[in-house]
Amino acid sequence: MRIAVLGGDGYCGWATALYLSAKGHSVAIVDNFVRRQWDYELGAQTLTPIRPLAQRLKVWRKVSGNAIELFVGDVTEYDFLSSTIQSFEPEAIVHFAEQRSAPYSMIDRKHAVFTQVNNVVGTLNLLFAMREFQPDCHLIKLGTMGEYGTPNIDIEEGYITIEHNGRKDVLPFPKQPGSFYHLSKVHDSHNIMFTCKIWGLRATDLNQGVVYGTMTDEVALDEALINRFDYDDVFGTVLNRFCVQAAIGTPLTVYGKGGQTRGFLDIRDTVRCVEIACQNPAARGEFRVFNQFTEQFSVLDLARMVETAGDKLGLSVQVEHLPDPRVEAEQHYYNAKHSKLIELGLKPHLLSDSLLDSLMNIALKYRDRIDASMMLPQVNWRQPRNERRSRTAEPTAPALEVVAAGKNNGGRSVARKVTGKVRQAASH
Ligand code: NAD
Ligand code: USQ
């Protein structure tokens, strides 16, 4: 299958592109490298030393024999995106190319506007490009469990049957997102659902939980293929952060009471879920929603698990409760359904002691790269303006010019020059 992975230089996207390529699909990555710029903006870096994408792709070709095509540009630029779709002619598009950090979207007005423009406009462009040039293509869009918030009822997979004043209907599950980022995902879902209805597009919204881990079979083949592992206060997610904190002996930063409960999954399951969605496309006109996580934990559950795993490695792990910088329920009911991907064949990798050990061993291996000043949260949801590195200069980024050359899996010769402008983060 010809599969375009938008955001293929990022955390989920890189692992997915390699996995799909290893399975024999013809894969193209579309990315503008803006994620790497956000690290520069925040003064942060991934725990793991990731290589430039061109180098990663060269090594992948060497170890696997498979070429992955590369299109460098910004999905919010319609000419770039539509010409990419016309040129690659994907049968499935996996869309990861968004600003995905809730704290980043809450820094100030500029970052909120940037997040929503980047995400909503990128997805809208994609819908128009699909309608115009590839209407039968299956869109696999990364949404988030955070679209639902934490209602005091069970969370269904996308839709709920409601009886009201004697009448009954199946309606989208109510959305109560908790950040401008999570709101952008809700806006995307509405736009996708609408275009499935009016144009007959086919789409699967993967409402993914928090992803942890960094190793997949393909990434493990060569150190130059290593994936990113974010631990800073803006892009680092909770379990990855706790493992890094344990490795350097700083207290685990539990926000508030720690009763915040979320769905979680191993990155090895992320890639498999995407494959399952590709293999089982939505019907024309169908907007399908899968809840993509395998287990639910509270923040305090995770802290206790890291504490226990740390003890075994001889680390002294402290747990600290900080005032919650976010506006969120610190103790609440949470029961989200997640059976559709299992029914289609997902065999989850559950969070076990051994995985936590290996996560902590990665943190220990790269301990010299850890910046301890990245642990305390600096973005407060209650403030409309936070000083989280928001005063950095904002030069206009130069246009990038990249030549992608090689042969893809199907033997089709690819020698393509792709240009695209990389927009500066938060330049709106
Ligand atoms: P990431 O930031 O590591 O990767 C996103 C990639 O998209 C980056 O390489 C970035 O350069 C690219 N990108 C962003 N905007 C772009 C644009 N306008 N044009 C071209 N490329 C652009 O993020 P991730 O953790 O891999 O997340 C991927 C997707 O999965 C996101 O949509 C996110 O909301 C969703 N998701 C992630 C998690 C998680 O725990 N990481 C959980 C649930 C959902
Ligand atoms: N938390 C802590 N301490 C920390 C970091 C986080 O207690 O040091 C808490 C947060 O307050 C929150 C929970 O842990 O209650 C999860 O936070 P997170 O930063 O791990 O994840 P979140 O902001 O929810 O976002 C991540 C991804 C996002 C994705 C989302 C899935 O960055 O792209 O959409 O997970 S979900 O949570 O299901 O919405």
Write the layout of secondary structure elements.
Blueprint lengths: L1 E5 L4 H12 L3 E6 L2 H9 L10 H12 L4 E4 L5 H11 L3 E4 L6 H4 L3 H25 L4 E7 L14 E6 L2 E6 L7 H20 L2 E7 L1 E3 L25 H11 L3 E4 L5 E6 H13 L7 E6 L2 E4 H14 L6 E4 L17 H4 L9 H13 L33 E9 L5 E9 L7
Parallel strand pairs: 1-2, 1-4, 2-3, 4-5, 5-8, 8-12, 9-11, 10-14
Antiparallel strand pairs: 6-7, 11-13, 15-16
Care to describe what's here?
This protein is of the alpha/beta class and 428 residues long. The protein has one domain: Rossmann fold, CATH 3.40.50. Helices cover 35% and strands 21% of the residues. The chain starts with a strand and ends in a 7-residue tail after the last strand. Sulfoquinovose-uridine-C1,5'-diphosphate (USQ) binds next to helix 8, strand 10 and strand 11.
Q: Which ligands accompany this protein?
A: nicotinamide-adenine-dinucleotide, sulfoquinovose-uridine-C1,5'-diphosphate
Give the low-pLDDT segments.
390-428
Count the E strands.
16
CATH topology: Rossmann fold
What portion of residues is helical?
Answer: 25-40%
Query: How is the largest sheet built, in terms of strand order?
Result: 3-2-1-4-5-8-12
Task: Give the class from helix and strand content and strand pairing.
Answer: alpha/beta
The CATH superfamily name is NAD(P)-binding Rossmann-like Domain
Offer a concise description of the structure:
This protein has 428 residues and is an alpha/beta fold. Helix content is 35%, strand content 21%.
Question: Which properties best describe this structure?
Answer:
428 residues, alpha/beta, Rossmann fold, seven-stranded parallel β-sheet, three-stranded mixed β-sheet, 16 strands, 35% helix, globular, disordered C terminus, binds nicotinamide-adenine-dinucleotide, binds sulfoquinovose-uridine-C1,5'-diphosphate
